[in-house]
């Protein structure tokens, strides 16, 4: 026969202060657990989703970021003439040549940061359907106009529509804001590549990105371009190219998170152990009574185990609730592959909340195991004799 | 003081509980020290910077270089006593994951400006004599087991291709804050290997000035000189330059502080609970002590002292362990934290924090013990 759950709930309610303190302690541990997962997840999502699997990007061989890459005009033309590239409605290749520079700009809080300034073509937008203009209008080719990403708009000074931002000695009118749906483009400033090249005094592009007509043609085009003696380039899937940039930092963040939470869990389990030992100690007589009433040792053990798990799950729920407002919070760090600032949002997913809850439950169960076993092993007569 | 034995005896009575509490506090303080050290290790480059060194770079962005011709003009600026220059090489060893800093430096002038880089005289001569040679930091040498005489292949990302350097020396830092994870090689060698259009460009100039008080004036003079050229400069103290780099990491500092606070707070809640349970179990005893004539103040100190002692013990253990573990294991977080060393200030802050936790967690039980009415407490038992 099982001891009713109400018995455990009442017991937890009877020692309110102790229950709340222990549950909160465990809850905070699962909060930290979810927090670090959301941090690493948000960072990785920003870079990973920046690329799309149907697109391929061509950079100079050996370059891990566009910034260190160089593609000259002749190579760019040769790349765009490949037969495996999908066609735009007007019959030209669905490919874009881009220029990437880093520019030191002031944040709204007064510090300065390195912002990616990207020279693009109309096809840059066709290749990245995620990028949508949400305010203002598109820049007009040939004019000193730029559009800015949503996060650049929020965080960088002079990035609102109507502002003029000074780049390479020229004032550029900000005419639009685009939403790139959490990708790293959201932190960038985009303008006309053919105008950027003379203004920034850059005779070469940094990358060529194109859509494949058939995903299976990737191998063929890659092989041909990488073997082409006129150029020294590497062809990569666009999503993999950006994901590789996030790998080091995301692994580090996850590692740090795991390290911190696992060690901290030991501390929280110690706390749960203390609480459950005290609970068992102060209820010796009760345990004796339960055993005398005919409840088996197994159900006493189970009951205490359930009680400590319940305690931890309460904490876990508090931790999850505290983690909810973290979702969507913006933070920034540097993408060390490109030395540019990348702003991203914390992503708290339902899976993370579930993991946090399970994590809490495991802490509770581990903390309750030994004390519960002690409870179940009580000898009835001695337990009842105690005051 | 004579009551310390009583406090210790009380703690020893519930050995398991004392152990678990000390352990959980030690865990919290260990993590506190670790997270704090992540921040301080980022800041090591600021501590290592010299007040008499200025950094000159392109006004718009680090990715644009400055002409080599600026060197002679910089030398003539009033207040400048030395000039050296170098380029960030940005390569990796075998795999992009093996990141460390490489600089192409003007070898004849670099040691005059960086006296904190110490290298044996014979190794220095060998390095200066051989164009394709390099010197590496002690920590870097240890990490990859490189020795003097080894050839190190580096894959360039900014300067493509495989570059091979012969290690001719291993340098050490004069203080612990000096980075020992860098590879320095000859700027001349890099320059002569480049195609015509990329030759004679410099990433960063370093200037030595006679006294720190001249920093602002010299910076202004330099920037004014190049203001209207096509390559304007930005000159700042080395400290400001490094601080700018660290600000690039973004709010990692804030995030780590949030996590650290959550940890300390969580363990404090757990400790408060333990201390309250401990006091509750001894209600009768406290009543007996009071009957024997122990004053309220003394009871307050006895119960509070117990919490303080436990916390301090946990703090010492946690902070000490952190300092020891990271020193013994040469931890660098995959090259991300080249200078991972728990500073004495961090240990001190940790122990103070533990003391604070002790006082706060002992407060509630100590006050309620002090205010305990003897008659009520005695009645409870019987």
Secondary structure topology:
The complex is a heterodimer of chains A (387) and B (382).
Chain A: H1 5-14, H2 16-48, E1 55-60, H3 73-80, E2 95-106, E3 112-120, H4 122-127, E4 132-136, E5 145-149, H5 150-155, E6 164-167, E7 170-179, E8 189-192, H6 193-199, E9 207-211, H7 218-227, E10 233-237, H8 238-282, H9 284-292, H10 297-323, E11 330-335, E12 340-345, H11 350-376, H12 380-385
Parallel strand pairs in A: 3-8, 5-7
Antiparallel strand pairs in A: 1-9, 1-10, 2-3, 2-9, 4-7, 5-8, 6-7, 11-12
Helix pairs in contact in A: 1-10, 2-8, 2-10, 2-11, 8-11, 10-11
Chain B: H1 4-13, H2 15-42, H3 44-48, E1 53-58, E2 66-67, H4 70-75, E3 80-88, E4 91-92, E5 101-105, H5 107-113, E6 117-118, H6 121-129, E7 133-137, H7 138-144, E8 151-156, E9 161-173, E10 182-186, H8 187-193, E11 201-202, E12 204-209, H9 215-226, E13 233-237, H10 238-247, H11 252-281, H12 283-291, H13 296-329, H14 344-370, H15 374-381
Parallel strand pairs in B: 5-10, 7-9
Antiparallel strand pairs in B: 1-12, 1-13, 2-11, 3-5, 3-12, 4-8, 6-9, 7-10, 8-9
Helix pairs in contact in B: 1-13, 2-11, 2-13, 2-14, 11-14, 12-15, 13-14
Architecture overview:
- The complex is a heterodimer of chains A (387) and B (382).
- Chain A is of the alpha+beta class.
- Chain A folds into two domains: 5-48 and 245-385, no CATH class; 62-231, no CATH class.
- Helices cover 50% and strands 20% of the residues of chain A.
- In chain A, strands 1, 2, 3, 4, 5, 6, 7, 8, 9 and 10 form a ten-stranded mixed β-sheet that branches. A two-stranded antiparallel sheet of chain A has the order 11-12.
- In chain A, a hairpin with a 2-residue loop joins β6 and β7 (170-179).
- In chain A, α1 packs across α10, α2 (16-48) crosses α10 and α2 (16-48) packs antiparallel against α11.
- The model of chain A has no long low-confidence stretch (mean pLDDT 88).
- Chain B is an alpha+beta fold.
- In chain B, the strands form two sheets. In chain B, strands 1, 3, 4, 5, 6, 7, 8, 9, 10, 12 and 13 form an eleven-stranded mixed β-sheet that branches.
- In chain B, β8 and β9 form a beta hairpin.
- The longest helix of chain B has 34 residues, at 296-329.
- Chain B is elongated and about 95 Å long.
- In chain B, 41% of the residues are buried.
- At the A-B interface, α2, β2, β3, α8 and β11 of A face α2 and α11 of B.
């Amino acid at each position: 026969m099982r001891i009713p759950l109400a018995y455990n709930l009442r017991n937890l309610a009877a020692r309110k202060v102790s229950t709340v303190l222990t549950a909160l302690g465990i809850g905070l541990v699962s909060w930290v657990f979810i927090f670090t997962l959301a941090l690493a997840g948000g960072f990785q999502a920003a870079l990973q989703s920046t690329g799309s699997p149907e697109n391929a990007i061509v950079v100079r061989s050996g370059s891990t970021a566009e910034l260190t890459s160089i593609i000259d005009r002749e190579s760019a033309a040769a790349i765009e003439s490949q037969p495996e590239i999908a066609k735009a409605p007007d019959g030209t290749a669905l490919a874009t040549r881009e220029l990437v520079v880093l520019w030191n700009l002031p944040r709204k809080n007064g510090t300065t940061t390195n912002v990616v300034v990207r020279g693009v073509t109309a096809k840059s937008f066709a290749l990245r359907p995620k990028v949508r203009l949400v305010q203002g209008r598109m820049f007009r080719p040939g004019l000193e106009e730029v559009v800015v990403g949503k996060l650049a708009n929020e965080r960088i000074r002079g990035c609102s529509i109507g502002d003029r931002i000074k780049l390479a000695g020229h004032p550029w009118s900000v005419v639009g804001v685009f939403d790139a749906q959490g990708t790293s483009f959201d932190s960038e400033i985009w303008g006309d590549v053919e105008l950027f090249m003379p203004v920034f005094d850059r005779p070469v592009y940094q990358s060529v990105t194109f859509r494949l007509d058939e995903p299976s043609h990737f191998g063929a085009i890659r092989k041909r371009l990488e073997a082409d003696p006129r150029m020294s380039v590497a062809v990569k899937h666009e999503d993999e190219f950006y994901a590789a940039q996030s790998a080091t930092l995301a692994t580090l963040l996850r590692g740090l998170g795991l390290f911190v939470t696992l060690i901290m869990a030991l501390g929280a389990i110690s706390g749960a152990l203390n609480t459950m030992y005290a609970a068992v100690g102060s209820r010796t007589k009760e345990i004796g009574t339960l055993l005398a009433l005919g409840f088996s040792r197994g159900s006493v053990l189970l009951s205490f185990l359930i009680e400590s798990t319940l305690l931890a799950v309460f904490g876990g729920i508090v931790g999850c609730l505290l983690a909810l407002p973290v979702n969507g919070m913006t933070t920034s760090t540097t993408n060390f592959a490109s030395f540019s600032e990348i702003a991203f949002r914390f992503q708290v997913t339902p899976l993370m909340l579930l993991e946090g809850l399970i994590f809490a439950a495991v802490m509770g169960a581990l903390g309750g195991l030994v004390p519960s076993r002690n409870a179940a092993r009580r000898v009835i007569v001695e337990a009842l004799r105690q005051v | 003081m004579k009551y310390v034995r009583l406090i210790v005896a009380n703690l020893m009575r519930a050995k398991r509980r004392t152990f678990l509490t000390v352990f959980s506090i030690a865990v919290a303080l260990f993590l506190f020290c670790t997270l704090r050290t992540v921040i301080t290790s980022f800041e090591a480059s600021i501590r290592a910077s010299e007040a008499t060194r200025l950094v000159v770079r392109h006004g718009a962005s680090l990715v644009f270089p400055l002409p080599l011709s600026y060197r002679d003009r910089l030398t003539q600026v009033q207040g400048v006593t030395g000039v050296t220059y170098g380029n960030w090489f940005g390569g990796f060893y075998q795999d992009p994951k093996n990141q460390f800093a490489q600089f192409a430096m003007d070898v004849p002038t670099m040691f005059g400006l960086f006296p904190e880089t110490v290298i044996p005289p014979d190794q220095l001569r060998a390095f200066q004599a051989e164009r394709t040679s390099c010197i590496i930091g002690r920590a870097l040498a240890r990490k990859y087991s490189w020795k003097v005489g080894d050839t190190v292949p580096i894959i360039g990302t900014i300067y493509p291709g495989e570059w091979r350097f012969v290690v001719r020396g291993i340098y050490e830092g004069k203080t612990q804050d000096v980075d020992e994870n860098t590879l320095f090689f000859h700027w001349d060698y890099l320059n002569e290997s480049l195609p015509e259009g990329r030759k004679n460009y410099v990433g960063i100039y370093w200037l030595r000035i006679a006294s720190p008080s001249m920093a602002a004036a010299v910076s202004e003079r330099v920037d004014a000189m190049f203001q209207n050229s096509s390559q304007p400069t930005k000159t700042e103290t080395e400290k400001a330059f490094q601080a700018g780099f660290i600000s690039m990491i973004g709010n990692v500092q804030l995030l780590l502080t949030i996590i650290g606070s959550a940890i300390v707070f969580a363990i404090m809640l757990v400790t408060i609970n333990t201390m309250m349970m401990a006091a509750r179990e001894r209600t009768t005893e406290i009543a007996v002590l009071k009957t024997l004539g122990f004053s309220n103040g003394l009871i307050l100190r006895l119960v509070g002292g117990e919490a303080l002692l436990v916390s301090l013990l946990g703090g010492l253990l946690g902070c000490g362990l952190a300092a020891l573990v990271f020193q013994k294991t040469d931890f660098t977080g995959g090259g991300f934290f080249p200078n991972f060393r728990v500073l004495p200030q961090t240990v001190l802050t940790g122990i103070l924090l533990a003391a604070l936790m002790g006082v706060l967690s002992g407060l509630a039980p100590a006050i309620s013990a002090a205010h305990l009415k003897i008659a009520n407490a005695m009645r409870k038992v019987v």
